[in-house]
Write a structure and sequence with these properties.
Layout lengths: L9 H7 L11 E6 L21 E5 L4 E5 L6 E9 L3 E9 L4 E5 L2 E5 L15 E7 L2 E9 L12 E8 L2 H7 L3 H5 L6 H13 L3 H8 L6 H10 L1 H19 L6 E5 L5 E4 L4 E4 L15 E3 L10 H9 L4 E2 L13 E5 L2 E8 L9 E8 L7 E4 L17 E4 L7 H8 L3 E4 L18 H13 L5 E3 L6 E4 L1
Parallel strand pairs: 13-14, 14-15, 19-20, 20-21, 21-22
Antiparallel strand pairs: 1-2, 1-4, 3-10, 4-9, 5-8, 5-10, 6-7, 6-9, 11-12, 11-23, 12-13, 16-17, 17-18, 18-19
Helix pairs in contact: 6-7
């Protein structure tokens, strides 16, 4: 693979070369509402409209702007500030809306449609943006919508949150190779920001090129890792699992490893299997797996080379679409080694009816063996009818599924939020990567409703012991 096939995140590296400055925005912002405008007609790189736009001066106490609105029209927050010299200022910002765009001095510098989705419900912003400011007057423009997401009373609001980030904090959360290497050693929220910022700089096109079947030379792979360090983190997660699975002995319960998106490797006292394994090198897992489960026919939930390798080795491939040994059309009941599997069909959305297989998996022969309920991209909790208790519910929190409603119906011991920060979704449109904040909002909502359930957002490569 040639280097030119990858797009370097130029903003990050160019800005980092400039001298660092403290964030010193103007205390007063301009709020600009344009009722007749659409999202497409407002360009944050066009400064000519500022003179004629109707603006209202506002303050953002605590770095938060909140205002109730009747319509979800696009609005602007504008900050005109002076810098003592040219250099870099760091801004952490986010909005609780579909997406936002940020412009500086007539240039678009960030478009959330190509980055991970964000909700301001989890603090003062999540995207770290380096602002390459010039000496003298600078104009920062943030465009966003009103939204009910994260609103405590369900009312439509504009909500923007920002905070300055000093150089030390910024460098700690940059998606560098060094910071990714420290993900398992730093504070959980810092680790999440490193991963999120890595995903922010990814594109679906570049991820698809990296993820397609081919062999990288050592030099080409090194260049990929240099351009997008999150890809090295992605590969190292698989290597960790390949190393740990054979070393791990399971006498009771189960040991589970998370592998990207909704992928899990599960080891019980009697066997080892995979669920929704999606990784460019997934085929390397075939010798370790006794069988594999796939919830549905979307390529962020399986790897074709792995399915072929399993079928060639005459190992069961359990799915509702791939014609290989073990192929089935759920609902079905089967036992493989010490694992019992019950499956049912659910809707993915209003168009893809009965498209997803949800699996209730009892991991052991004893009555108290842990039960995993993996519902893939199921969208309607009313369609979930497991044949018995559920210990761990693995779900996609932003496919239409109401997590609180599912928790009430299933009463799981734990909920594992998955399908987070899927890099194949780093493109404009509604299906952008789902952020950690989506899970935290659901957790907060369940807490307010008095739903007592333990929640977890597994990281790629994380090992979890289930007693």
């Amino acid at each position: 693979m040639k280097t030119k096939e990858l797009v370097i995140a130029g903003l990050l590296f160019c800005a980092a070369a400039l001298p660092a400055l403290p964030l010193a925005l103007n205390e007063k912002w301009s709020f600009c509402e344009i009722p007749s405008a659409t999202w497409e007609t407002i360009n944050v790189a066009d400064l000519s409209f500022l003179a004629k736009a109707k603006k209202e001066m506002v303050s953002l106490p605590g770095g938060v702007f909140s205002r109730e609105t009747k319509e979800g029209k696009p609005v602007l927050l504008i900050n005109e500030f002076d810098a003592p010299s040219g250099g870099t200022m760091y801004l952490r910002c986010g909005v609780n809306c579909s997406y936002m765009q940020v412009g500086l001095n007539g240039k678009m510098i960030f478009d959330e449609r190509t980055a991970s989705a964000f909700s301001a419900g989890c603090g003062n912003g999540s995207h770290i943006l380096p602002l390459a400011v010039k000496k003298g007057r600078n104009v920062l423009i943030v465009k966003f919508f009103g939204s009910t997401q994260g609103s405590p009373d369900g009312k439509l609001r504009y909500l923007f949150a920002f905070a300055g980030a000093d150089e030390a904090q910024y460098r700690q959360e940059l998606p560098t190779r060094e910071n990714f290497a420290a993900v398992g050693k730093v504070d959980r929220h810092v680790a999440e920001r490193i991963i999120r910022n890595g995903v922010d700089r990814m594109t679906a096109t570049d991820f698809a090129k990296f993820n397609r079947p081919h062999h990288f030379s050592a030099a080409d792979l090194e260049r990929c890792y240099q351009h997008y360090p999150i890809l090295e983190f992605y590969d190292r997660a698989l290597e960790k699992i390949l190393r740990e699975v054979p070393e791990t002995k399971v006498d009771h319960g189960a040991v589970v490893w998370h592998l990207y998106n909704m992928g899990y490797v599960v080891k019980t006292p009697g066997c080892c299997f995979g669920i929704d394994i999606c990784h460019r090198r997934a085929e390397e897992l075939a010798p370790l797996l006794d069988f594999i489960l796939v919830t549905h026919n979307h390529n962020d939930h399986y790897n074709l080379a792995l399915l072929k390798a399993m079928a060639k080795a005459k190992k069961p491939v359990i799915s509702n679409f791939y014609p290989a040994k073990g192929y089935q059309a759920p609902p079905e009941h089967l036992t493989i080694s010490d694992v019992t599997i019950d499956s049912e069909r659910c809707d993915h959305n209003a168009t893809l009816k009965k498209f997803v297989s949800a699996y209730r998996i009892q991991c052991g022969r004893t009555d108290d063996a842990p039960v995993i309920y993996h519902t893939g991209d199921s969208c309607d909790p009313r369609q979930l009818h497991p044949s018995g208790r559920v210990d761990i519910h693995i779900l996609h929190p932003r496919i239409g599924l109401s997590v609180p409603e599912a928790a009430k119906l299933l009463s799981p011991r734990e909920i594992w939020f998955s399908h987070l920060l899927e890099m194949g979704h780093c493109k404009p449109g509604i299906y952008r990567p789902v952020d950690w904040c989506a899970a935290y909002l659901d957790m907060e909502m369940m807490k307010k409703q008095g739903i007592e359930v333990s929640c977890r957002c597994p990281m790629w490569g994380e090992k979890i012991v289930i007693p």
